[in-house]
Amino acid sequence: MRTLALLLLALAAHAQSPADLEAVVTTDAGVFRFAFAPDKAPKHVDQFLARARQGYYNGSAFFRVVPYGLIQGGDPLLKNPKSPRTLWGTGGLNLTPDEFSDLKHERGVVSTVRIPGKPNSDGAQFFVCIGPQTALDGQFSAFGLVTEGMDVVEKISQSPTDKNGITTTPVRILSVTIEPKKVEPFLTATTAELARTVELKTTLGTLKIALEPTWAPEHVRNFLKLTATGWFNGTPFHRIVPGFVVQGGMSAGRAHSADRWVRTLKGEFSPERKHVRGIVSMARGDDPDSASTSFFLMLGDAPHLDGQYSAFGRIVEGLEILEAFEKEPVNGETPQRPLFLLEATIVP
Hints:
The protein has 348 residues and is α+β, with helices and mostly antiparallel strands. It has helices at residues 2-15, 42-53, 150-157, 191-194, 217-228, 319-326, and strands spanning 21-27, 30-36, 61-66, 70-73, 109-112, 126-129, 142-148, 166-180, 197-202, 205-211, 235-241, 245-248, 279-282, 295-298, 311-317, 330-331, 334-335, 340-346. Helix content is 17%, strand content 30%.
């Protein structure tokens, strides 16, 4: 029975649309994932899926890099550790016809290696763009986009090389597996399902926020998403203005698996929602629709923010923590010592 169940699961996975799948590339430098673009290069996507499921890429390597430009791998010849360097990049080609499209070779795009100057010579080797490669647009068959782990791709691109850009030591591809594409948390949650409480453990203590989806449903959805994925954990409180706000929720340049779901939000402003002590609202830039992750806790009344910023919750426990923040020494508006949102969790 167990064997039958595993077979059924495998068949179900194979039956999924390529648009609902991701490749998980595990290397000895870390892991990155990419989604497929079957509407742009269906034959290339099908071929990659088939090869990955057969273990074709396991044990190969990334062997050619351009620092912060691109990385190239997938040559089956590199499975043999004794393969001569002069042959690296020559294997697994001339297998698939070209599928050029309007998909640009921008950051994170995954594309196919071909024999220079020879039409319809695409193969199993692939490359990942780190920066825009405009000269490659319409010349190579792009078929995917990195969804997680661009920091790993960048790290691979910095591997030591010889004068021809061939790595001194190849970065091994331990495995390439195919998994269902990760689903964004709370993406389809109803207003009632968004009415949750979030607990914030900070350097100065713990407080609880009751979220108010009837005020700003998309901002609540966004806050729950970032909480559920752990995106907020370890982020700093970078601004304190006594009597006004404590602000946090910026990434500080750190890469996170949920970065794929970080996007700007359309303002949800309401003059009836007063920015008074204990209210939680969303920070933004000059553009009213530029809020994304940074939020602030109100330390006092600020009527000039009403109708200009998206209030989405209120502190229901731990108001005394606001007093602790106000007592912290600052340089201008910057805390003198590091203060963090240690962990954000959704209360069951």
